[in-house]
Amino acid sequence: MGDIIVLIISCIFVNNILLAQFLGNCPFLGTSKKLETALGMAMAVIFVLVMAGAITWIVQYFILDKFKLEYLQTIAFILVIASLVQFVEMFLKKSIPGLYAGLGIFLPLITTNCAVFGVCIINMKEGYGFLETLVSSFAYAAGFGLALILFAGVRERIILARVPKPLQDTSIGLITAGVLALAFMGFKGMV
Amino acid sequence: MNDMVKMVVVLTLLAAASGFLLSFAEQKTAPLIEMQVLNNEQWPTLQTIFKDADNLDTLVDQRFKIDLGDDENVTIFPGVYNGEPKAVAFEAKSTGFGGPLGVMVAVNLDTDEMVAIGVTVSQETPGFGSRAKDEPDLANQFKGLGLLQSFSVKADGGDIDAITGATVTSRAVCAAVTSAGETYKSIKPEILEKVKAI
Amino acid sequence: MAKTLTQEFTKGLWQEIPPFRLVLGLCPALGVTTTVQNGVGMGLATTFVLVCANLLVSVLRKVIPAKVRIACFIVVIATFVTLVGMLMQAFTYPLYGMLGIFIPLIVVNCIVLGRAEAFAYKNPVLPSIADGLGIGLGFTMALGALGAVREVIGTGCFTVPFGPTLTILSADWYTPFAFMVQAPGAFIGLGLMLCLMNLVPSK
Lengths: 191, 198, 203
Description:
The structure holds 3 protein chains of 3 kinds. Chain A has helices spanning 2-14, 25-30, 35-64, 73-95, 97-103, 107-111, 114-125, 130-158, 170-185. By secondary structure, chain A is mostly helical. Chain A has one domain (24-190). By secondary structure, chain B is α+β, with helices and mostly antiparallel strands. Chain B has one domain. Chain B has helices spanning 2-49, 131-134, 137-140, 167-195, and strands at residues 64-69, 72-81, 84-95, 100-108, 114-119. In chain B, strand 4 and strand 5 form a beta hairpin. The radius of gyration of chain B is 21 Å and the shape is globular. Chain C has a domain at 8-146. Chain C is 62% helix and 3% strand. Chain C has a two-stranded antiparallel sheet with strand order 1-2. Chains in contact: A-B, A-C, B-C. At the A-C interface, helix 2, helix 4, helix 7 and helix 9 of A face helix 2, helix 4 and helix 8 of C.
């Protein structure tokens, strides 16, 4: 149990997927201009990442390892994620329209979100068991959401400030992210 | 309908071509990759643990593999002292703080005592866990101990002094050496058989 | 559309240089640029995938049905990414070790998918190759530049790609500003470079 808690803390704070491992930065800068959008994206990532983590684990241990096809990992995982996203989108549209209205527009963006693909690969690299995979996928996604929402909150304020022209938009966004990353570095000694 | 068929055919063909190309590339690059791993990960460690061996220049070419069952095998490096293959080294894995950790264990075939050990691969935290690889304090404690026993750090009731601030890494090294002992027990007859040829 | 091959090639080097003008592919730009060599190595690996994927997508553009084009692109790209991973492990193992997880991640690099979709799927083979090569080399230059800034300030050294490490700022009088090679330095370094690029007009 203690190990699981350490894993959760290290995935959310210490090894934060966005600010320490640099994965998922395109949607990070793209969907963080408004708090509302950031919240939607964060939810969609948590939803898809937990499912993708579970499925890729099964694919890795029951198909790739069994038939000595480890070298097909990249191609297998990306196809799993792409079809999963498509499937989730269709399912939500038909069965839970309320949730679809909230998450729908973010789902296609997730296929090329390297955080999803990256976490699946990290899970395999660390050799996690099934339970640990589920926990780490959730925790990494939660860390992504946390950073995204914090960042969106800051960005909503920056719009009100007068930023010099060359620094506007992405440039100031990156510098803000750097300051946020500096704050997250404070968690380094925790685990 | 026609569109549907075309879609399926194109995707299937593309996937088949990709699988074919990759399995071909995998076959071609696998031996090269093995050599790279050998040169970059195992060789530097072998150089330190077998520094007094007579066959330091040739021991990589003298390596052989032993089947462990379940499609797994272990690569054995023989060390020649005074003209005789007295020791062998092989790698055992465990999981450290930052990911997989490999330990190369050299063992004397007559006494079953360890000649030396060295960490091969580690992704441990620089300045803490990485000292298991960069500094000899931990590895030296294993010198001369019998391999056929289980090891643990003092905090867990064993005899090994853990590196300050890197208990997890020290535990991982102990676990790797313990598992090396188990492997050694089960394959020693085969090792003795094979080193005769050297 | 009457651009020459040279124009298709050079636009990637300046006018549309990623990740500055074309704000895509930020993850590798931030993640691997702790040294010049890592940046250049990553850029070259991406260039290889870009050129090959552009070539193949362009050759097959009449065969690939529009509805499943994204799936086809992904298969093509993933194949070349796996291939480049194998080749790097076989020939430049230490570099592969440094770049680690970012090599398989080329597969989700928006630049590669973006060029396949926006350019190669609509254009003949030669311009597609020129486009891939230009964008790829532009990306390599950008990563190399960011790597140089971070490495020199952060450690005082400069690693010539595939060569020796030179000491630029002597440790006698320069205390390395290690902040630059850590995570926050990546964001701030890239942000400031982007700002500099914005000061220069794009034409």
